[in-house]
Specification:
Layout lengths: L21 E4 L9 E4 L5 E6 L8 H13 L4 E4 L7 H9 L3 E4 L1 H10 L4 H15 L3 E4 L10 H5 L8 H13 L4 H4 L1 H11 L2 E4 L14 H19 L4 E8 L2 H14 L5 E7 L8 H14 L4 E3 L12 H23 L3 H11 L3 H7 L3 H11 L15 H19 L1
Helix pairs in contact: 1-2, 1-12, 3-4, 3-6, 4-8, 11-12, 13-14, 14-15
Keywords: 4Fe-4S, Iron, Iron-sulfur, Lyase, Metal-binding, S-adenosyl-L-methionine, Zinc
InterPro entries: Metal_Hydrolase (IPR032466), ThiC/Bza_core_dom (IPR038521), ThiC/BzaA/B (IPR002817)
Cofactor: [4Fe-4S] cluster
Length: 410
């Protein structure tokens, strides 16, 4: 039996054992436990932080990453567009989390400043890897993935990927193919030597539930599968960013497609948002999608905040989102793995009104401890929801009375 307090233990049976790959995201230059990724492990929550010039600061974003690590998050993605490496270097030095970065933003900045696309791509990737990051996100399938004008313009939101739009802009200016694709083998060499995983981003991921499973996105997923195979042949671990906005009934279809064409690479989602009309409550939309995606074998989820489509999240908004998504992913893992160990232990503690044990088993012990302490509950005490009408107490008393009757009759 697995330890009911350790959600990172492998499942006895999950997904397709013939094709699914599992590994730990951790570079050779980063002294951490790492982030276990793949169908053998519960899905990971990925928290996105980053510097947007004029909107936030290194201190503010580092505080978010620090609190995410305290809440048990194992991987943090730095999406800074400032060109400043301070945040990622501070996280790498100070926090026990795997760090994923997006070189595309720095490449685009360097290209606009006059550097060639090839030189900028290799230089920036080498710089991120040299810093010790554990995973780099590259937009290698946009321009060459069949994202043709007629397919893109037929979608409600043509391109929702910030990095993908930047790579496409570079290609438009140079008249050359995707800047990552041109040096993909060299990037693989860099990553293989440093034990860095590659995250294949999706330029054509749907930004509206109406655009889910568009022809351009399906084409790109197949292209991601081709690059995943090339990376695997060179000994480089790969994760694939799969979904963005997807209605509930299409999430399973996306996951089936991913298992079919991605050479066993773990795949993930941003949310996914299951409706486009939850403005101000995108964390709820995303958590619903995350539970369903995890149920169908999605290995990592980037959590969405309440204002995902309107503003940078505050510290408190991000923390609420993390807690909600952790609940959603646990629910999805139960459905995927069938592992009810921790929940059964919680139910036994609840049946005994064992408050300390309930705190210990909860997903967020700090929150549970505050509730128990404020109420002054002790072992055996009923809660204020039912009070003296507590069915647990009534049933327990009836069971004890029946036992006494049997003893007397015997």
């Amino acid at each position: 039996m697995k330890d009911d307090m350790n959600p990172q233990q492998p499942a006895a049976s999950s997904g397709d054992p013939q094709s699914a790959r599992s590994f730990v995201i951790r570079s050779t230059g980063h002294d951490i436990e790492g982030a276990p990724m793949g169908a053998a492990f519960p899905p990971l929550l990925d928290v996105i932080i980053g510097i947007t010039p004029g909107e936030t600061s290194v201190d503010t974003e580092f505080a978010k990453a620090e609190e995410a690590a305290r809440l048990g998050v194992r991987i943090v993605t730095d999406v800074s567009t400032s060109g400043d490496a301070t945040l990622r270097r501070q996280i790498l030095k100070s926090l026990p989390v795997a760090v994923r970065t997006v070189p595309t933003y720095d490449i685009h900045r360097a290209f606009k400043a006059g550097e060639t696309a090839r030189d900028a791509t290799l230089r920036v990737v080498e710089e991120h890897v040299r810093d010790g990051v554990d995973c780099i996100t590259i937009h290698a399938t946009g321009t060459n993935a069949g994202v043709r004008d007629e397919e893109v313009t037929s979608r409600i939101i043509p391109v929702t990927s910030r990095g993908g739009a930047m790579v496409n802009e570079i290609s438009t200016h140079t008249g050359r193919p995707n800047c990552y694709e041109e040096v993909f083998d060299e990037i693989l060499d860099i990553c293989a030597e440093a034990g860095v995983a590659i995250s294949l981003a999706t330029t054509a991921r749907p930004g509206s539930v109406v655009d889910a499973l568009s022809a351009s996105h399906i084409h790109e997923i197949h292209r991601q599968g081709e690059l995943a195979r090339r990376a695997h042949q060179r000994g480089v671990d790969v994760v694939v960013e799969l979904m963005g906005h997807v209605p509930l009934h299409l999430i399973a279809e996306y996951c089936t497609l991913a298992r079919t064409v991605l050479d066993g690479a773990p795949f993930g989602a941003l949310g996914p948002c299951v409706t486009d009309v939850a403005m101000g409550h995108d964390d709820v939309s995303g958590a619903i999608g995350a539970a369903v995606a995890a149920m169908h074998g999605t290995s990592f989820i980037a959590c969405l905040t309440a204002g995902e489509h309107s503003h940078l999240p505050t510290h408190e908004e991000l923390l609420r989102s993390i807690r909600s998504f952790q609940v959603a992913l646990h629910a999805g893992w139960i459905a995927f793995s069938g592992d009810l160990t921790r929940d059964a232990a919680m139910s036994r503690a609840r049946n005994a009104n064992d408050w300390p044990r309930m705190v210990e088993l909860s997903l967020h012990p700090d929150d549970s401890e505050r509730i128990v302490t404020a109420a002054g509950y002790h072992v055996g005490q009923v809660c204020s929801m039912c009070g003296s009408s507590c069915p647990i107490v009534r049933t327990g008393a009836a069971v004890r009375k029946q036992g006494e009757m049997r003893i007397l009759e015997g």
